[in-house]
Every structure is written in C-alpha cells, then in structure tokens.
Design brief:
mainly alpha
C-alpha cells in the first residue's frame, strides 16, 4: 500500500464504522449500511492507489530513459492537485453528511484508475 493510501486510511478511518476492520468481499458486494459502503470505498481507493504506485514506478523509469522524467514528475504533481480538488468539489454537495466520504472516495478511485491507465499506456510505447 502506498503512502497516500495509508494516509487516507488513517485520516478517513474514523469516519467509517467505529472499530471496523477490513471489509470482506461479501460485505463489499452488497453493503447494508453507509458505514460499510464508506469502508469498502476506502478499500477500493487504496487498491487503486497501489496500482497507481506500481504504474508510476514503471512509467518514471521509462520517462527517465527518454529524458522526460522531470516533465512526467511535474505532470504527476499537477495531476495530484487536480485529483484532490476535483474530488473535493465532486463531494461538496454532501458536505457534513454520511454520503460525503463515499462520493469523494469513489471519485478518487475513478480518477486514480484513469491516471493509472494513462501511465501504463505511456510506458507501453
């Protein structure tokens, strides 16, 4: 798990079911309450973040080989700012409600998965 995923788990963990451990596949297939949905969304985002970190390592190695490592790093930093702001805005209509963490985490997962595909495509050249 990447450092970002660990930070998300620590910071957002208190917003989920108190004392909740990792949710099982069965619980995440058909969650019965918002706290479980939020915890499952956090797990899904952590997985997406881990996949991004793997793709990043490969893409940055390729970027360095073609002299684009600084440009890729700058783009990644800009993308991180975009992702965080975009998902905060996406979840803002639900601010203060129990649905807000779920909406934000799902946004983070979706945007992260899209960036992972971009990095994998870049590395495939």
């Amino acid at each position: 798990m990447g450092p970002l995923a660990v930070a998300v788990a620590v910071v957002l963990g208190s917003q989920f079911a108190s004392g909740a451990d990792a949710q099982t596949v069965a619980q995440c297939t058909a969650p019965q309450d918002q706290a479980t949905m939020n915890a499952c969304a956090a797990q899904a985002y952590a997985q997406a973040d881990a996949e991004l970190n793997t793709a990043w390592k490969s893409a940055s190695t390729f970027a360095k080989a073609i002299g684009q490592d600084n440009a890729l790093l700058e783009a990644q930093r800009a993308w991180l700012r975009y992702r965080d702001l975009a998902c905060t805005v996406q979840a803002s209509p639900f601010e203060g409600g129990t649905l807000q963490p779920f909406v934000k985490l799902e946004c983070l997962r979706e945007v992260t998965a899209a960036r992972t595909r971009m990095l994998l495509d870049f590395n495939a050249y």
